[in-house]
Design brief:
The complex is a heterodimer of chains A (76) and B (643).
Chain A lengths: L1 E6 L14 E5 L6 H7 L7 E6 L2 E3 L10 E6 L3
Parallel strand pairs in A: 1-5
Antiparallel strand pairs in A: 1-2, 3-4, 3-5
Chain B lengths: L11 E5 L4 E5 L4 H6 L2 H12 L13 E4 L14 E6 L6 E6 L3 H7 L4 E5 L6 E6 L2 E6 L8 H11 L4 E4 L2 H4 L7 E3 L3 E3 L4 H7 L2 E7 L10 H12 L6 H9 L5 H7 L20 H7 L3 E3 L9 E3 L2 E3 L2 E3 L8 H7 L8 H14 L3 H16 L18 H12 L5 H4 L3 H8 L24 H9 L49 H19 L16 H12 L5 H21 L29 H15 L9 H6 L6 H4 L3
Parallel strand pairs in B: 1-6, 7-12
Antiparallel strand pairs in B: 1-2, 3-4, 3-6, 4-5, 7-8, 9-10, 9-12, 10-11, 13-14, 15-16
Classes of the chains: A mainly beta (76), B alpha+beta (643).
Amino acid sequence: MHVSVKLFGTLRRLSQPETPGYWIGEIPDHSRIIDLITILGTSNKEASHAAINKKVCPFDTEISEYDEITLVTNVG
Amino acid sequence: MEQMHNGFWGRILKVDLSSGTWVVEEPDPRLYRIYMGGGNFALHYLIKEIPRGIDAFDPENRLVFMTSPLTGAPISGQGRHTCAALSPLTGGLADSQCGGWWGAELKFSGLDGIVVSGKSEKLVTIHIEDEKIEIIETENLRGKTTGEAQDYFGEEYPKARVLQMGPAGENLVRYACVTSDLKNFHGRGGLGAVMGSKNLRAIVVKGSNREIKLANPDGLKVIRDWFNSRLKTHPAISLHHELGTAKGIVPVSIAGILPTYNFQDGSFIDAEKICGETMKRELNGKTETCYACGVACKRSVEGKSGKFTVTRQYGGPEYESIGLLGSNLGVNNILHVAALNERCNALGLDTISAGASISWAVECFERELLSEKDTEGIRLTWNDPETYIDLLDAIAYRTGFGKLLGEGSKRAAAYIGKGTERYAIQVKGQEPPNHEPRGKWGVALGYAVSNTGADHLQAAHDPWFDKPGDFSKECNWVDLEDLSPVGIFEPVPTEDLSAAKVRLFVYLQQIWGFHDVLDWCIFTSVPEFRALSLQQLVEIVQCVTGWRTSLFELMKAGERWATMGRAFNVKHGLSAKDDTLPERFFEPMRAGTLKGHFIDREIFEKSKKLYYEMMGWDKNSKPTEGKLEELNVGFIWPHIKDS
C-alpha cells in the first residue's frame, strides 16, 4: 500500500532526494509503524514518537493506505 | 606581548567606571587550574567583591566577562565566553555563556577576562586593542538599537568585535540581554540591565595575538581532524548544521513537551508552521558559525510580508525563541516569530522572558484578571504578533503597559495581584525556557535548583537516558553507554525522580558544569551529541594546557561551579525555599500528547532534599564547610557561615 512519511530529527536523513523531509513509497498491507521503521532501516532506538494523520499513536498501530505518517526522534 | 602560559595569559582587566580607571591584574596561575575558567573564575570575583545585601543596580555590583584556557584554540566548540553578575531579575546569580567571536577576540588581545565595577556618569564604551585600553564616551548611542550601534562601531573600529546592551538595558528592563555582534547572546538573567546600571553601552575588542600558545598542537590537530571528518556524516551534527536548534520544534511537540499557550498545553497544532524545516524553506535559512567552529549551527534568515520584515543582520531565531515567541503565544507563522525575535535582538531583550511576560499577560487578560485599564487600552489575545511587536518596544523603552512587563512576570503579577500570580510561570523570577517539564522530570529538578532561575542547561535532558545502552550504532544520538565512564549504566524513565534519577542529574550537571566553566559548546560532545567523548574533552584540555588532567578533575570543576553558584546565592539571601516550581507544573496538562500528566509534588520535594544531600549542602541548601574545603574553595565559608 502507498504511504507518505514525514521525517523529523535525524530520521530526515532517510528522505528521498527529490522530497526533503519525506519518504513516499509502498509498504506491505497491514504493516504497523514499527514495521515501517524497520523498512526505513532504523529502529525504535532512534525513532521516539509517531503520529498518523497528526494523531500520536503507539508503534504497534496498524497503518492504512494513504495515511500520512509522522516519525520523529528525541532531541535541550 | 608573549603568552606565558599554555592556553591563558594570566591577565585580568579590572575597570572601575566610577573613577574611570583600570588596572591589569595577574592572578595566581594556580587559580586557572582550580577554576578552569568561565563561571568558576567569575564567581571567584563575584563572591569576594560584591557586598551582601546590595541591589543588582548598585555600582558595587560586579559584571565579569571571562574566557577559559580553551577559548580561541583552533578547534570546534571553544568559541564561547561567560558573563556573570548579581541578577536584577532573580536577586541571585546571573551566569550566561555566549557564542560568537568576541571571546576569542578578547583572548587575542592578551586578556583572559574583565571585571567591571562602579558606574559611569555618562554612557561609555570600553575599547580594547591589544595593550591599548580606553574608556570613551558614547552618549550618541543612547536609545539606539543594537544594529545602529553595531554600524557605528563598525565604522569607528573596523574588524573589532562588539559586545553590547541595547535600549532595554539602558532602561533597566530586568531581563535585558547582552548581544555579541547582533547574533549571539548572554540572554538570561538581566545582564544587559547590569550594563545599563553602570552606563556601559559596549565593550569593543580587537586583538593581534591570534595564535593561542598550546602545549601539544599536534595532539589537538589529531582530535580536530577526527571531529571535522565526521561533520558531514554524523547524523545529529549534520542535521544540526542544516537546521540549527530549531530542528527540535516538531519532535518536541509530538512528544508533548513543547510549551504552548503559556505552558497550558504541551503540543502545538501548528508546530510544523514554525519549525526549522519551514524556516529554512520559507525564510531562505542559511548557516553561520562561531569562531573556528565547523558545526556552524547559527541561523540567518530573511523575509517580508505585509508589516513584517526580517533581515540577516540579526541572524535568526533559535529553538528557545521560537517556542517562547511562537507556540507559547500561539503564533503560527515563522515570519512573525522571526520578526518578534529580530525586534528583541534590536532592543536587547531576552526572547524567553519577553515572550513569557507577554504570554502571562495574554492568559490573564483571557481570564479577565487583567483589563484594558491595566493594559492601558491594549486588548490581548493569542496569535496577535502585531500587538506583541508593539509591546516589545513599549517594554524596552518603558512606556505604557510595557513599563510593568519590563519587570518580568513575577513582579508584574505581584503588582497586579487578583490571582494573576498563579499564571506567572517562573522560578526565582526567571521564566522557564522552551521545555515543558511535566514530560521530563529531571528538567523540572533543574529548573528548581538552578542557581540562575529556571534554566534548561543545568543537565542533559531525560529522554536521552530512558533506554538501555547500545553501542552498536556509531555516530548516532547520544546513548546511555556514553555515560559509563562516570558510572551511569541503568536507564531511568523520563517521568521519574527516584534516587537513580537524582544521581543521574547530579553527574549530568557536573558534565555540563565543566562544559560551562571551560566555555565549551555542548553541540560538539557527549551527552548532547555522540561526537567528542568525555575522554576526548579531557584530551583537548591536556593538549591546550599541558595539565595532566583527568575526567575526575573536570567533573570536580563542574561540581565546583554548582556549589560556588549556590554559595553566592546563599550569601545574597536565597535558600531552599526559593528552589520551587510554578504551581502549574503540579497540575494536569490541559492538552497535547501528555494531556493529564503532572509532576508529583511529594516526589519532587523528596528529590530536592536528596539532591542537597548528594551535593554536600545542608537542608537549607547551604554548602557545608567541609564540602567547600573539599572543592578547594574554603575561602567562601566566611562569606556564608552566618547566612
